[in-house]
Design a protein that fits this description.
about 140 residues; seven-stranded mixed β-barrel; three-stranded antiparallel sheet; globular
Amino acid sequence: MGRLERIWIKRARMGPMDPKDTAELVPGKGLAGNANQGGHRQVTVITAERWAELEEELGATIDPRSRRANLFVSGLDLTDCRDKVLRIGSCRLSMLGETRPCDLMDKMHPGLQNAMKPRWRGGAYGQVLEGGSISVGDEAAWE
């Protein structure tokens, strides 16, 4: 059993990631107000455990917002989660694949891109199957 720890909304392409306590997941679109609406990667997810691993490996404390993901969860393993359904609160996400890190990560912190490559540390992406409101603290679990 996991927990939704943080929510971030990207207000514009390449724009800042704004923290939110609550957000709305919209089927077929993603997070309401997020710059990336619709398409294949509607929502991106990273985990606290994998983030802690890469911080230890790099010997640095790095704001997880640097990853530019929408949801930060704890207590779940995203490794090989393709074709699984993730429930957050009453919402459901169909997880479609690994979010591979790009060279922008090294601009956030030297070596971050390579540190994200093992064990899906860069997170995963999916599409909204069932939408609704989500809040920091909501339960997150695999169906």
